[in-house]
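Progress report, Aim 2. The chain analyzed during this reporting quarter is listed below.
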Amino acid sequence: MSSANEQVKNGNFTMRARKSLEVDAGGRPISGSITKYDDNDTYTYVGKAVPGTATSDALWSIKRITNSTGDITWADSTFEYLKIWDNRASYSYA
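Predicted structure tokens for the chain:
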């Protein structure tokens, strides 16, 4: 964005800039996201990240669904985009 008063609308927010603007999403999706699934007999892991994020980057939000009950828990009790998809089974879930 480089022109005066340019607007970008995305989801629930609008950004306005008078000069150039860089946005560091810190791993949080701004325009779309990718989703990965990993199923086994006990759990289903669901991970979300910005498109292009490597599975080894600490930029994932990971939840675990207990297949028998449907209970949903988050990796290390956080839904923030701070986890590594490759490590999904090693996190604690609460």
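The longest strand covers residues 58-66. The CA atoms of residues 37 and 46 lie 5 Å apart. These observations will guide the mutagenesis work planned for the next reporting period.
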